[in-house]
Amino acid sequence: MKGILIQQKVFKSIDGKYAENVSDDKKRDNDEYAYSSIILNLSDSVIRKVGKQNSAKELWDRLEELFTETSLPSKLFLLEKFFRYKLDMSKNIDENIDEFTKLVQDIKLTGDKNIDDYTPIVFA
Question: Where along the chain do its domains lie?
Answer without folding.
Answer: 2-67, 72-122
